[in-house]
Model the fold of this input.
Amino acid sequence: MPGSLSKDAITIILVTAILIWVMPLMIGTYTLTVLIVYGMLGLSLGLIWGFGGILCFGQAAFFGLGAYTYAVAAINIGESTVPMILAVIVPAAFAALLGAMMFYGRLNDVYLGVITLVVTLILFKFINSTAGPQYLIGNARLGGFNGIPGFQTLNVPGRPDDYIWGDSYFYVCAVLLGLVFFLVSALLRSSFGRIAVGIRENETRMSLLGYDVRARKTVLFAAGAAIAGLAGALFANWAEIVTPSLFSLGQSAEIIIWCIVGGLGTRLGPVLGAAGLAYLKFLLGQQSLVDNTLITGLILVLFVLFLPKGVVPALAGLWKVSFGRRPLGRIHQQRRMRNRGRVNG
Amino acid sequence: MVETVLETHGLTMRFGGVVASDNVDFKLRARELRCLIGPNGAGKSTFFKCVTGLQTPTEGEVYMRGVETTHWMPHQIASLGVGIKTQTPNVMDSLSVFENIWLAARRFHDPKDANRKTQEIIERLALGSIARDDLGRLAHGERQRVELGLVAVGDPWLVLLDEPAAGMSAEDVERMTEIIHELNKTAAIIIVEHDMQFIRSIAQVVTVFHQGKVLMEDHVDRVMSDPTVRNVYLGKKV
Amino acid sequence: MSLNRRKFFASTAALAGASMLPRAVMAADTIKLGSILDTSGIFDAYGKPMDMAARLAVDEINAAGGLLGKQVEVVAYDTQSDMALYSQYGQQLTRQDQVDVVHGGILSASREAIRQTMRKTRTPYFYNVLYEGGVCDRNIFINGVTPAQQVEALVPYAMGKSGKKVYILAADYNYGQITARWIQKFVADNGGETVGVDFFPLDVSDFGSTIAKIQSVGPDLVIAPLVGGAHLSFFRQWAAAGMKDRIPLASTTLGVGNEHKVLTPEEGNGIMVAYNYSQELDTPANNAFKEKWADAYGDSNLIHEIAVSNYQGVMTWAEAVRQAGSMDRDALIAALESGLSIDGPAGKITVDPKTHHAVLDVHIMEIEDQGMKVIETLPQRQPIDTQAVCDLSANPDDNTQYEIEI
Amino acid sequence: MDLTVVILVEMLYAVASLILISAGLAVVFGMMKVINLAHGEFMMMGGYATITAVNLGVNIFVAMLIIAPLVVGLIGLVVERLVIRHLYGRLVDTMLATWGLSLFFIGLATMIFGNTTTGISTPIPGFAIGNYQINGYNFFIIVVAILLLIGMLSILKATRAGLIARGAMQRSDMAAALGYSPDRIYMATFFCGSALSGLAGAVLAPLVGLVPTSGGAYIAKAFITVIAGGPSLIAGLFSSAGFFGVVNQIFTFAISPVIGEVALLVAAVVLLRLLPQGITGKFFKGKL
Done:
């Protein structure tokens, strides 16, 4: 990977600073906040799918788990610091278990897809049927379809009465996204990240080189879940309510679409794809000319057919063609990467 | 006394009713170079896969430098210092030559040393001019050479090669032979091969497989002149 | 195809442009009414007519000269039957659009998603939907029917026509959970016995095993507070199994979204319900309303219970603004708490000052040939369930949804 | 005793409906290694085709058994020509594209039919088993599922097209080597698969109400059933639908429908973990 990590860091800080300054002039900070949260969620799948080759149909499960963990912990604790940490740890631990179950069972491709999809469905169905008063964790009612409203939202650490909301919450989220983006960059530059890319490219070869593919995939899977969990907690703070729809397959589908449209195998693609499409959905919600779902579907089909690499790699390619320089980040046969596995039988 | 680096006892592999590998006893001494030959379906590849952990044998044991590795995973076996090259080119296609070899080097060295080792291997294998190219764009012979580089960079004491010369030009084969001899200075080598020309040029002792069993094991010249072996290869020019 | 797409992009661009305009350009010479409803997605059978009703009401108000000399402007968001979008658009309405009042929310889940936002931003909020009762919050006004108004009337009537043993099938969320408890209470109060309660998430649509289970218990009556399109299949499968003539059915929700017009007469006839409104109400007010609706939308067939509630909610708010003479929140609440009432299509609606709920007429009805035939009218029922736990004049800072304990 | 019979019928019905909802997906997956995530929407369109036809005065059985499969089959044909054709051999891309299609069709159906639940009455009266009334339509579904399996089996075993299909399932290049254009085989397969989806949607429509998002309820189940079934088309379909249907109904009767669904999903995870090749990857090898 060209360039160095410190150069990356400077770029990220500059871009984050500019975005924090410029974007609120165009879009309300309230809407921007959720776009940032979705960006982070997109990044979480972009990391494990684009760089680890793990297509997870249930990234929403970790998002929802993070949000619910935060909400339940915040109600019981009444201060936001520990819940925030738990919201990262619990999904990561859950993903580690699930990942170990799948990868040590040598499940791949479609089977991986089925299992992640099914686990998401199970979580959704479970959470959705917890409306009764008997579903209680500490002081928190799970609430079923209604979700959990009215929990302690983000506060200055140690001072439960100083809420961080509105514009300050936007800044917190933006900085956190910058930080996560930097951590992902650092991870990808590290040996672990490079080995992960090697595993994406050729699992057998990597294991013949002496790498424990199962363990590494599990760890990467958990790292993605941790990011998704953080995004979930931030979403919970933003929405001030968590509902089972966070776990829905529709949510999972959207994350996948963000990654495809933005571009796999890049760090920026999923972030931009998420923010862009979420904003589009938001705009479409204000019109009734064309059905919203129809547009989302059309976008996905057209991208798979005509721009399977996504927007960011395409633009980077264009840049390369026009200016003859190698663009930042690597763009490689995502198409083949996505379809490397064949179904057995 | 010369150390035994690889030993199998009664190695048997059944697929349903088919016995692909039948009670194979095998021994390899340090820095020995051994070729495994035999017609298609003789059980060479099954033997290879059982030894490398790609398949788990139904019965029997595998020992490497005295350690039993029968039920180990490939990565555990590789971690012992065993270099493995499978039949078809098995590389990371969308990564560069440097990155490919670096990934192999990184397994046994910290990042800095891995960079140095990678450079060394690239020079040794004369890959300098293509070091930044993606593997997917290279010719078959070059890819095979890179894969040998992946094996060599780990400083293995045992190298297992499955048909390294398949589909290569004469010139490439010659280069390959050099590299193998070079590797053989520090490592025992097993080569599974069809190409008799290549075997003649490289081998000393040859093990012949037939119907899952070891048919004979002797010096290459004696094996080539053996009537039973000729019979097994019926019709094939030996 | 390409034309459509171009048209779509053009409209998107226009929207984007509009939303980027500085807020100051849209001067405050109108009164802004925020509306937040599911006009697409699985709950749009409820939401679309509600939206139409709100717009009808606003047009009527504007045609009569507006309020306080200003026109009323509707700022509407479609929440697409997605609970998460409620909080998003709720924030949008209050913080960015800074509307003067919000009408909307359909499912109890959606109300709870935005209620605190409305309270925090001091935006008066009208929830105009039949619901489970118990919300006690000075910022919210509710004119939907509550269990004490509906279930208390329906249960004895239905038990009188069937028997003492009751089986309950309820939607699995706060509405169904709480309503089921109310039903159990009123069954017990009337000397009956609840022999089974089952809850179903909103996406369950196969009731075969449930129907078998009900038969193995053998109740005299089944009461079904089921919600949404998927649950509608219960009534179909019940009829298909030939159960309709064996065990009578009552529901606290069937028909609220005009579901009885989707069921065939064979499937629907005889199901007992109780609501504030029915298209079959033969009153001058209702006939005039149906005519107005038909003039605006061509056909009055879409009108349903909560569309009328929404219409009445907007009208109640407008009346309060006129009486208060200002858009100030406290003046508005004071006007509403003065015991204000209006005459809507469903009769007289009076705001109950203690609970901010409504005193209204309830009709016991039976479904007949895709209509709701009025059997008995119970005039001006008090929301006694909420009155028992909520007194906003004594505790103006109360902010709870009380749930019945049994 | 009566209850036992009722439970047994419900179990058979659960198995039959799983077979029905999975058949179309299984055919397309088995023959083309394409996972059609718009399968649920194909079923939804089958339902709408039926209801529209019935409302236009067509006999309900004609609408369900002929019109709906034809209409959806033709839609499938168009989809295959416009989209799927370009993506053969790219498993994940076809999944994503068909996912997009599924959203597209939901949107389209919403714009055409609106989001209000529609439905038609079941054409078969309920009848009594001892003291119990059960839905007579359950039997109709069981019969359709049985006929479907027999039909598929006999087509595969006894006809020329079936022979080619079996060849294509084993080795996709085989049919091409025999001189059949794979392009046309895929077209025909996708048509048949779509028609089966349409049939399933049509037959189930009278039982459950129909909204444009109805398909979502089926796709996950169908997906699980097909993958868990493994490589053999009919044996796989039958065994995994049987397994899941029975598990589902046991827990539904013992606890509740939701737990029944969850039990089905948990069973799927356990099954795939233990038999990653699906049921017929391990047993019934080489059967149809």
In short: The radius of gyration of chain B is 18 Å. Residues 208 and 214 of chain B are 6 Å apart (CA to CA). Residues 1-81+158-164+188-232 of chain B form a domain with the Rossmann fold fold (CATH 3.40.50.300).
